[in-house]
Protein: RNA polymerase sigma70 factor
Amino acid sequence: MSEIAVDVAGDGGARQGGAPGELADRLEAHRAELTGYCYRMLGSAFEAEDAVQETMVRAWRSYARFEGRSSLRSWLYRIATNVCLDLLKGSRRRARPMDLASPSSVDTPVGNGLPEATWIGPVPDGRVLAEAADPAEAAVARESIRLAFVSALQRLAPRQRAVLILREVLSWSASEVAELLGSSVAAVNSALQRARATLAVDEAPAAPPLDDAQQALLKRYVDAFERFDMEALTALLHEDSTLSMPPYALWLRGREDIVRWMRGPGRGCEGSHLVPLTANGRPAFGQYRAGGEPWAIQVIETAGGRITALQSFLDTERLFPLFGLPMRWPDPSGGGSGEPVPGS
Structure:
């Protein structure tokens, strides 16, 4: 039984006209793109999945009143937008550590972790990127889930955020967005203009799909990190590279400080094993410390043949299951069988 059918079982939703299984399949076909939309709106993979599930349940329950006045996809986006706008009422915006304070020094105490609701969180590509036949559309989709872009979106008022995503990322027309929001075309265009002005400083060229050189860079990074070879790691980092570690506010800028951190407070990462992933349209890794302890989801940014950002998210209890990773790795050195041990 589908997730939708499970959630509405017993509440009368299945009594709507038509075949319940067919309707559930039609709704489920839109889950990935709706999750991507809600993730951009909310900045949290967990909130996005909750919002999409609420969208699906509302659609299931009210399908008899839909009457096909618009496409099913447009109708679902209207419901998802309303769910997100409701969730954003009164909430503080999520951010990255570098959005909140100046860079720290290596000697700065780590301090206490801040609540999960403070941070933009990572998301697996497969949860939010629907298949796109057009390579250009796929590139736009990857860029629009980049952590820096999602963080910038959070600076916009919620309705401006929806307008910009629908117009710039999903390529909806102004009239389509106006209909969805119950607004006018002029109001939509005005909101888009204001949103573009706010985000202008955050625009960046689209990153191409990983080529051989980038793959080689990542292979060298894994080798240097797992051997804990700081000289090799230094050679891979851009001089202005950053290191961040939510839920902690502390973050570092500059390869010298990053390497000093790794040799000091970060020494516990020696002996780690990295499992390749993709997150936020970027290469990523699940990091297990020596002994198989899950430690972080690393999201890597690269440019010009160097690593420009190491973004480590330490909420392993929630994030490792999200990325399909086991809660223990038997051989962090990468030797032996390499078979994961399922978490309890």
The longest strand covers residues 293-303. Strands lie at 237-244, 251-253, 273-279, 282-289, 293-303, 306-313. The chain has a mean pLDDT of 88. The CA atoms of residues 100 and 198 lie 17 Å apart.
